[in-house]
Amino acid sequence: MLNEVNIIGHLGNDPEIRYQPSSDAIATMSIGCSERWRDKKTGEQKEKTEWIRVVVFGKLAENVGEYLKKGSLVFVKGKFRTRKWQDQSGQDRYSTEVTVGMDGIVKFLDKKPQSQSTQQQGGWGQPQQPQQQAPQNEPPMDWDGNIPFAPIGLPYPRHAIYVI
C-alpha cells in the first residue's frame, strides 16, 4: 500500500508553531494549490484553488517556522492522515490533513532575491567595494532548501546539519 502526497503551492498564512510538552515542535500551515483551465463554451479562463492543511513535526517544523512566510512557494511530500476530534457540543468531527515527519520533505521553491550591487563613490572619487550586509534570517544562497538535511561542509553557525 502507498500513502504518499506531493503538493506544490503557496502558503495562505504564516505557519503556526507550537510545542508539545516533550518540547517537540509542530508547524501547521495551509497550502493553496491552484489549477487553471479554459471554459470550452465561453473561452474564459477559470481557476480553482484547493486549500490543504499540512502539519510538520520536529526540527523540520522549527525550520518551517523560521524560513517560510505567507505566500512562500513550497513543495511538500507527506502522508494523508485523518484524525478524530470532538467539537464544543461533543459531536465527533474528522479532519484530513497531510503530515510531514522524518520521512517527509519540505522544499522551498521561491527564488532568492538577487542583491542589487551598486557602486558607491569613495572619498577620492574611486568606487568603493560594496559593503557586506548584516546576516539575515535566511538560509545561505547555496542552500538546497531541503529541511533539515544539507550538504556537508557548508557553514551553518546556528543550525545542526543532518546527514543520512
From TrEMBL:
<comment type="subunit">
    <text>Homotetramer.</text>
</comment>
<dbReference type="GO" id="GO:0003697">
    <property type="term" value="F:single-stranded DNA binding"/>
</dbReference>
<dbReference type="Pfam" id="PF00436">
    <property type="entry name" value="SSB"/>
</dbReference>
<keyword id="KW-0238">DNA-binding</keyword>
<feature type="compositionally biased region" description="Low complexity">
    <location>
        <begin position="114"/>
        <end position="140"/>
    </location>
</feature>
<protein>
    <recommendedName>
        <fullName>Single-stranded DNA-binding protein</fullName>
    </recommendedName>
</protein>
<dbReference type="GO" id="GO:0009295">
    <property type="term" value="C:nucleoid"/>
</dbReference>
<dbReference type="InterPro" id="IPR012340">
    <property type="entry name" value="NA-bd_OB-fold"/>
</dbReference>
<dbReference type="InterPro" id="IPR000424">
    <property type="entry name" value="Primosome_PriB/ssb"/>
</dbReference>
<feature type="region of interest" description="Disordered">
    <location>
        <begin position="112"/>
        <end position="149"/>
    </location>
</feature>
<dbReference type="GO" id="GO:0006260">
    <property type="term" value="P:DNA replication"/>
</dbReference>
<dbReference type="InterPro" id="IPR011344">
    <property type="entry name" value="ssDNA-bd"/>
</dbReference>
